[in-house]
Amino acid sequence: MIATLGGSICVSQTTTEIELFDFIEEQPPFEFDMTGELRLGILTDAGASATSIPFGFIEIRLHPLDGSDEDGYNPFPWPVMALYMPDGITSYTVDGEMYLITGNEGDLRDYRYFNSSSGMNVIGHNEEIRIASTTLDPMRFPDASSMQQMSQLGRLNVPNNCGDTDDDGDLDYICAVGARSFSIWTTDMEMVWDSGHDLSYYSTKNGQHRIDEMNSRDDNKGIEPEGVRVGVIDDRTYLFVSMERSFGVMIYDISNPHQPTFQQWIQVDGATNPEDMEFIPAEISPTSSPLLVVANEDSGTVGIWELALL
Questions:
Q1: pTM of the predicted model, to two decimals?
Q2: What is the rounded distance in angstroms from the CA atom of residue 68 to the CA atom of residue 73?
Q3: Span 52-72, mean pLDDT?
Q4: Is the per-residue pLDDT at 151 higher than 90?
Q5: What's the CA dihedral at 107, 108, 109, 111 to 10 degrees?
Q6: Mean pLDDT of the chain
Q7: Parallel, antiparallel, or unpaired: how do β-strands 274-280 and 291-296 relate?
Q8: Strands across the sheet with 89-94, in order?
Q9: Which stretches of the chain are DSSP H helices?
Q10: Within a 10 A sphere around the Cβ of 237, how many other Cβ atoms?
Q11: Angle (CA) 25 103 157, round 5°
């Protein structure tokens, strides 16, 4: 019991969406994602209090984004700032330096309640709006009428409370939901490396039989990178990233945090919406080989993968 162990409970006073958390290696604090608040929370053992650090944005001009579900696979460097909004988070150490890793899924607040009079679920709070329904600042976006076409960026869902920096009713910036990437950070939240468009590219390249399903998510959060797990195999450090909407797992060699390299895509056949994972090293594996255990949300299944270097 928590009370018996001397624990305490933190009660949120706001509509903060807290996602996954992870203990920082060999240190008292642990970090947790506050997805709806766009921040990283850090909770210490000094009491029921937390500090937080903002994640910021990623510039899509540098990393193309497919913002329409009506044009197939068609990434473009739109003038968009994507909110990181991570889901999964983990940490690892290289040469005595600790790094954090986030899977930047994205999510907006959408609260529903049951109306006993109508017998239906009713939207109580929704932050989502399509670009076509917004007013873009004409100075910032002189080609707004073209951008807002449904075949261009018009169908992209964005937060209705982000981007109007001068409070004049139009958007000075377009804020996309989720960076559709994974990122490596210092513990001070300085960016070390971001996968950019890689996850979408490799998902499309390796998941051709699910291309229509993936395209249907382009106007929302894309492939939705969820869980991130680190494992060591033969003295190399690997990152496993689960893709909720492309039903696969990406493997990267992150032995050098400044230069990760893509290794392989694992196709989760017969399983849908992979979420969290657990890496089991060879020394404690029942098969004497490293294992990756994947929990699949939609299909309600658990997959176990035996891993080996070729």
A1: 0.81
A2: 9
A3: 78
A4: no
A5: -80
A6: 80
A7: antiparallel
A8: 89-94, 97-104, 181-186, 191-194
A9: 144-147, 198-206, 211-215
A10: 18
A11: 150
With 50 as the cut, is the pLDDT of residue 4 above it?
Answer: no
CA-based nearest residue to 274, from 307, 243, 231, 240: 243
Burial class (CB in 10 A: 0-12, 13-18, 19+), 283: exposed
Strands 236-243 and 225-233: antiparallel
Q: How far is CA 211 from CA 181, 184, 197, 251, 253, in A?
A: 18, 28, 16, 20, 26
* Length of the chain measured in residues: 310
Tokens coding 90: 């983990």
Q: In this predicted structure, what is the pLDDT of residue 220?
A: 81
Which tokens go with 81?
């700032």
Instruction: Give the number of other CB atoms < 10 A from CB of residue 299.
Output: 15
| Residue 69 structure tokens | 């579900």
Reduced to 3 states (helix: H, G, I; strand: E, B; else coil), residue 206 is helix
Cα–Cα dist 293/182, whole Å: 20
Alpha-carbon torsion 241, 189, 165, 161, what sign? positive
The Cα 141–Cα 116 span in angstroms is 45
CA distance 285 to 48: 37
Return the closest-CA partner of residue 227 out of 205, 243, 212, 213: 243
Quote the pLDDT of residue 212. 63
CB contact set of 266 (below 8 Å; sequence gap of 6+): 248, 249, 250, 251, 292, 305
- How far is the C-alpha of 216 from the C-alpha of 198, rounded, in Å? 19
Amino acid identity of residue 247, one-letter, is F
One-letter identity of residue 201:
Y
pLDDT at 210: 60
